Automatic annotation (TrEMBL):
Residue ranges occupied by any Rhodanese domain in the UniProt entry: 270-361, 376-464
Organism per entry: Robiginitalea biformata (strain ATCC BAA-864 / DSM 15991 / KCTC 12146 / HTCC2501)
Coiled-coil ranges per UniProt: none
A single MF term (Gene Ontology): sulfur dioxygenase activity
GO process annotations (BP): glutathione metabolic process; hydrogen sulfide metabolic process
This protein's UniProt keywords: Metal-binding
Entry keyword annotation includes Cytoplasm: no
Name by which UniProt lists this protein: Metallo-beta-lactamase superfamily protein
Amino acid sequence: MKVEQIYTGCLAHAAYYIESNGEAAVFDPLREVQPYIDRANKDGAQIKYVFETHFHADFVSGHLDLQKKTGAQIVFGPNAKPGYEALIAGDGQVFEVGDYQVKVIHTPGHTMESTTYLLIDEAGRQHGIITGDTLFIGDVGRPDLAQHVVSELTEEKLASHLFDSLRNKIMPLPDHLIVYPNHGAGSACGKKMSEETTDTLGHQKEVNYALRADMTREEFIGELLTGLTAPPGYFPQNVLMNIKGYESLDTVMKRGNQPLSPAAFEAAANETGALVLDTRDAETFAKGFVPNSVNIGLGGDFAPWVGELIPDVQHPILLVTEPGREEEAVTRLSRVGYDQTLGYLEGGFDAWKQTGREVESTGRMTVAELEALASKGEAPVIIDVRKRSEYDSEHLLDAINIPLKEINEHLAEFPKDKKFVLHCAGGYRSMIASSILKQRGWDDFADIVGGFDALKKSHLPKSEYICPTTLL
């Protein structure tokens, strides 16, 4: 049986495509659906079904546009209540895609409508399971997301449902089945996913902590809930878009791909209160940018950081990009529901600068310069914007940890009466933090060139945290 995994690294997202005898199906598609249509056209196939494993939180699915463009039937599992036409399948229901079969296995726990799809080949052999966020490679789906949409669905209740789904629906299946999850390492939908994006079910039964055969319900719930961090703020908004519906991507792209002269760009920013989002790399941004811009570079985890730091997916956005990357930026914003891009600065930052309009820059400091200040007893306050787990692993001895994702709640902790420096691991996140602070009125600070990767090679004193369990 041929199953094609279509993986998008910036979201750690996997969609799936199957085709048999002129019929095709797509599972958990991304917002931009033309690649799936092109894939089916290449096979001379008609997309018959769009199967959704659940109402996704971390991205806006492309099921509605795929239905409109191909006539495909949208399929959800039991308990789903979408605000648009869709087939709500029963547990055990079988769908035919050419000579293949797709069997619905209701596996609530990540969400109550979560469904696994069992793939059966043309000879009637069970081939694999498309598990959505129920089962990952090395992990299972976090059970605390649905409660942000339906309050009575506590994480404990959902974890208990997931325990039953795994024991009663997934683990009894044959070991040879290939597990096809919706996400890989880097997704916020789990806590310790493997870098691998497929595996056999039998191997997962051996190595996945959540599939231990001797695990009690209480042990499962305890281990699953331990170490969960707060989900990104945009997740509930994406869930609602996937439940209720959304604008066509064609409409979003047409609105966002509007070239604006510097004068028109400035007028639009003033009239709409739009956020000016600069997607260039950190080094280029630091040298000069449109005043009040926020820098989130396309070269990093762009969409997830947009989702972490811009609270409202409906907030209007104006883009500054490297020329030629405007469409990419609008597309990647739309994947996580930020549909209100109003246009981009035609000609990029250079066009703005050439008009003589005001520009800003942000300070940068090398590790050698920081070492020189420290040797004279003049070291500035050091603020580490990495995750707490990174900080706990190793950090500069006197550094203060304010994770980037929490920056808006901790602005008062950034000093205004003394100089400070920022760093992350390599410079991507610290430049985001720098741009936010500049926008909010801070000036007397610098970003460390190369981040902690460079600081580790310095002679500055460091503190390393050793987890007690490593001493056993």
